[in-house]
Amino acid sequence: MYSAILLAGGKGTRMQKSVPKQYLLLAGKPVIIHSLERLDELDEISEIVVVCEREYTATITQLLTQYNIAKEVVFALAGQTRQESVYNGLKKAKNSMVIIHEAARPFATINDFKRLIAANSENALLGYSIPYTVVEGDKKLDGILDRSKLINVQLPQKFSKSELLQAHEKAFREGCKFTEDASLLFYYEKSNIEIVEGSNYNIKLTEALDMLIGEIIYKEYIARRR
Amino acid sequence: MRTCVITGASSGIGRASAIMLSQTREYDNYALIGRNIKGLEETAQNMASDINVYIINADLSTPENLPHIVDEIAEKYGTIDCLLNIAGYTEPASIFSTTYENIQATYTINCFSPFILMRECAKYMKKKGGKILNIASTAGMSPRPGWVSYASSKAAMISISQTLTEELAEYGIKVYCISPGRCATNLRKKLAPDEDPSTIMQPEDVARIICNLIGEGGNCIDGQNIVVRQKIK
């Protein structure tokens, strides 16, 4: 059994809205509900740890009732950084295996979660090829990266909780910051992390334009799937 | 075991649909919601004998209890797979004679209670899919002087159905909307008291269409207002 850790602590600054993006409406329902409904459907997940700001726990609790989310949901407090939020979520999780997902990625499908869970390795991530050219540099080009060797790291990801917690504690002691957990685990534990093919529909809602693109993805990719 | 919830089954289109649908064996359990218990019992007696029928005494003019009733049905049968919102109400009057109580009662029975039932039943259909069918009316599509509360409430039902078709598609829940024309029901008698009911469409004609939609077929025509009326002679 897995504990799902759903990261919902973002403030949505880049979205330039008064409400964080995970509570904006996408296809008529709050962004966070898209992920909660998928997690609720998965038999392999026994609990959902929602990591959010304290002020939003009442809002989420109300949404859970309105949308008839049956699975056990517990809350962990969002940290100052994404890394701290994951750490807080890990400490709340009861199961030895965790799936980390973020509320700002509402288009991960049941099939994506199932393929991730079915991966042979204990630790795995969804990844997708990079279709555009990536170079190094700031004001001037410093180097060329071979995109055939690069992967766009997506969520959800799955981990052994004890391995990931251990890596987080090392990162905390050393004051090292990572933007996601597969990199953190690989850096400290050199763990075998499997890459499961993701999808270019599984976008992260970051900027205002993403909400417009999201409406199209929902209509063509999610609503028509049945 | 599959469960179907029906309102308005004590007479007319609701009764004909309940009887006809029970004979298809599409559903094992039927919950008939209404306040005319005698009428519902008569309907149940005419339904197939090898199905379960649960009669619930409830007044659709007071929707506050409906969430509890839906929970009760789901608890009893373990599932809700289909909802037929068939009950209707009308009190035809001109604009100057239409009271607030009239329009409120009409909207409550024709729109608000069906909406609450859709919302609550959809909570149970979300994981496995389901079917919802709402009865609107051709009155909701064209102006009828003297029918302002009824006609506008049916127009609202057409819109509610179309909106929820989109919103519930993700869960595999199909929403159908039927707009019958003149049909020999008690409600029609209030709208056209001098009309000979034997000259117009019968409830069984509409029930046949409902069974087609709710049964195996009809899956691709959700989300549109399906007009059911006799051809113009």
Kindly describe this structure.
The complex is a heterodimer of chains A (226) and B (233). Chain A has 226 residues and is of the alpha/beta class. The longest helix of chain A has 15 residues, at 208-222. The mean pLDDT of chain A is 94. Chain A has one domain: Spore Coat Polysaccharide Biosynthesis Protein SpsA, Chain A (Alpha-Beta Complex), CATH 3.90.550. In chain A, strand 2 and strand 3 form a beta hairpin. Chain A has helices spanning 31-41, 57-66, 82-92, 110-118, 161-174, 181-189, 208-222; strands at 2-7, 25-26, 29-30, 45-52, 72-77, 97-102, 123-129, 135-137, 141-144, 151-160, 193-197. In chain A, helix 3 (82-92) packs across helix 5 and helix 5 crosses helix 6. Chain B has 233 residues and is α/β, with parallel strands linked by helices. Helices cover 43% and strands 17% of the residues of chain B. Chain B has 7 helices and 7 strands, in the order E-H-E-H-E-H-E-H-E-H-E-H-H-E. In chain B, strand 2, helix 2 and strand 3 form a beta-alpha-beta unit. Chain B has one domain (3-228): NAD(P)-binding Rossmann-like Domain (Rossmann fold), CATH 3.40.50. The longest helix of chain B has 26 residues, at 100-125. The A-B interface holds A 27-29, 37, 40-41, 67-68, 218, 222-226 and B 123-124, 126-127, 129, 166-167, 169-172.
In short:
The complex is a heterodimer of chains A (226) and B (233). Chain A has 226 residues and is an alpha/beta fold. Chain A has helices at 31-41, 57-66, 82-92, 110-118, 161-174, 181-189, 208-222; strands at residues 2-7, 25-26, 29-30, 45-52, 72-77, 97-102, 123-129, 135-137, 141-144, 151-160, 193-197.
Features:
heterodimer; A: 226 residues; alpha/beta; Spore Coat Polysaccharide Biosynthesis Protein SpsA, Chain A; seven-stranded mixed sheet; two-stranded antiparallel sheet; B: 233 residues; Rossmann fold; seven-stranded parallel sheet; 7 helices; 43% helix
